[in-house]
């Protein structure tokens, strides 16, 4: 298997910097009255790691020709911002291994300057953060999510298959130095890292970082049984409550996590619980893959192709028409379930297609 080498940030192409038209287009509102204000954009399905809950060891990635170019991604994001999207989270695969990715951040930062975009942010495994933390801050990125499932270097390597703990810690340090606010994402894995939840909380809060725990979601075939990995966070929360004072927090980041303040550490802990507590009723999000497929729900298969209308014309009219039609099909909720009777994933695509 060939692992991708991280790309060099030199010779970044300049992407077009056209602004938004002064006349605003109508917002994207689904049939349940939920306004879409948050987009997660996966800029690549490739990754330099193979986390056991996310990917199989041998993965078939998309041919590069299928991917939207950075210029197309820039145009698509601009069109979405025009429709009222205020938070844009760049994800993957590993977003920081996409060649010249900083040129996309640079181009999108113009929407922060005008105020059309409230937040440009990123979810990363941290492997390339040491190089990119400072350029990201220069592009107006203020908060990032870094995924780290263990504080133990050997265990981390076993979970990620190819990840190097020291590199991620160096990336986190660089991000802190660059002034980025960091949230650590930890997927709770039964019998793997459940004994590390307390140390992880103490460590993250000790450095002023929030910690979000995530229930493993049944997405894509991974060559293992997710029922073995699944740890319900209701159980984790009650265990934490016997040790700490958790006070439910009204903190919102636009994402699906519910937060609590930990009185003893002064930090925040988030819980992403798609299985034990369905978070669909307040869903303001859609996801776009690196080939321009719009998924109206992370846990459903229905999708709309945005690449064809993007490429059909230099005008965005067809693209907006496709967005209007797609939003009318946004479902009420997902169908995730993990149990001994559900050996198959709820959706066949991996999380790395649509991003976390
Ligand atoms: N590579 C980047 C990273 O790991 O942060 C961004 C993409 S990754 C798909 C985004 C988030 O999804 C990560 O925090 C990861 O732990 C989480 N994730 C991946 N597969 C998952 C699954 N099956 N269930 C729950 N979370 C998952
Ligand atoms: Fe890569 Fe992120 Fe998936 Fe891990 S969770 S394999 S780092 S995309």
What does this molecule look like?
With 356 residues, this protein is of the alpha/beta class. The chain has a single domain (38-354), classed as Alpha-Beta Barrel (TIM Barrel). It has helices at residues 70-82, 101-114, 129-138, 153-160, 165-177, 197-206, 226-229, 233-241, 307-312, 317-327, 351-354; strands at residues 38-42, 87-91, 119-124, 143-147, 181-188, 210-215, 246-248, 258-262, 267-272, 285-288, 293-295, 303-305. A 12-stranded mixed β-sheet has the order 7-8-9-6-5-4-3-2-1-10-11-12. The longest helix has 14 residues, at 101-114. The two termini are 24 Å apart. Residues 1-10 have low confidence and may be disordered. S-adenosylmethionine is lined by residues 47, 53-54, 91-92, 94, 123-125, 147, 185, 187, 214, 216-217, 219, 351-352, 355-356. Residues 47, 49-51, 54-55, 92-94, 125, 147, 160, 352 line the site of iron/sulfur cluster.
Concise account of the structure shown:
This protein is an alpha/beta fold. Helices cover 29% and strands 17% of the residues. The protein has a twelve-stranded mixed sheet.
Biggest sheet descriptor: 12 strands, mixed
User: What structural class should be given to the helix and strand makeup?
Assistant: alpha/beta
Radius of gyration: 19 Å
CATH level-four homologous superfamily name? Aldolase class I
Task: List the bound ligands.
Answer: S-adenosylmethionine, iron/sulfur cluster
**Strand tally:** 12
Unreliably modeled segments:
1-10
Layout of secondary structure:
Elements: E1 38-42, H1 70-82, E2 87-91, H2 101-114, E3 119-124, H3 129-138, E4 143-147, H4 153-160, H5 165-177, E5 181-188, H6 197-206, E6 210-215, H7 226-229, H8 233-241, E7 246-248, E8 258-262, E9 267-272, E10 285-288, E11 293-295, E12 303-305, H9 307-312, H10 317-327, H11 351-354
Parallel strand pairs: 1-2, 1-10, 2-3, 3-4, 4-5, 5-6, 6-9
Antiparallel strand pairs: 7-8, 8-9, 10-11, 11-12
Helix pairs in contact: 1-2, 3-5
């Amino acid at each position: 298997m060939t692992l991708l080498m991280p790309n060099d940030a030199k010779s970044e192409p300049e992407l077009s910097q056209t602004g938004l038209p002064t006349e605003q287009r109508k917002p994207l509102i689904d049939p349940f009255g939920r306004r879409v204000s948050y987009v997660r954009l996966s800029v690549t399905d490739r990754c330099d790691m193979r986390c056991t809950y996310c990917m199989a060891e041998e993965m078939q990635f998309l041919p590069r020709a299928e991917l939207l170019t950075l210029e197309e991604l820039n145009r698509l994001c601009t069109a979405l911002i025009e429709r009222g999207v205020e938070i844009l989270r760049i994800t993957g695969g590993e977003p920081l291994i996409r060649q010249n990715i900083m040129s996309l951040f640079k181009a999108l930062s113009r929407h922060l300057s005008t105020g059309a975009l409230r937040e440009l942010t990123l979810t990363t495994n941290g492997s390339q953060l040491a190089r990119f933390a400072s350029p990201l801050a220069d592009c107006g990125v203020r908060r990032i999510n870094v995924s780290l499932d263990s504080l133990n270097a050997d265990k981390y390597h076993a979970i990620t298959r190819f990840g190097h703990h020291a590199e991620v810690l160096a990336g986190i340090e660089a991000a802190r130095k660059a002034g980025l606010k960091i949230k650590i994402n930890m997927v709770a894995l039964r019998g793997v890292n459940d004994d590390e939840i307390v140390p992880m909380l103490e460590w993250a809060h000790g450095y002023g970082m929030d910690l979000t725990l995530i229930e493993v979601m049944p997405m894509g075939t991974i060559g293992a049984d997710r029922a073995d990995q699944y740890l319900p966070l209701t159980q984790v929360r009650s265990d934490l409550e016997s040790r700490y004072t958790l006070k439910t927090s009204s903190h919102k980041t636009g994402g699906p996590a519910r937060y609590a303040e930990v009185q003893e550490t002064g930090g925040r802990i988030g819980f992403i619980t798609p299985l034990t507590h369905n978070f669909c009723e307040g869903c303001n999000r859609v996801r776009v893959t690196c080939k321009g497929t719009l998924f109206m729900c992370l846990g459903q298969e229905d999708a709309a192709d945005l690449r064809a209308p993007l490429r059909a014309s230099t005008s965005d009219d067809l693209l907006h028409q496709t967005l209007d039609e797609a939003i009318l099909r946004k479902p009420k909720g997902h169908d995730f379930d993990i149990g001994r009777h559900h050996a198959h994933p709820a959706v066949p695509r991996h999380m790395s297609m649509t991003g976390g």
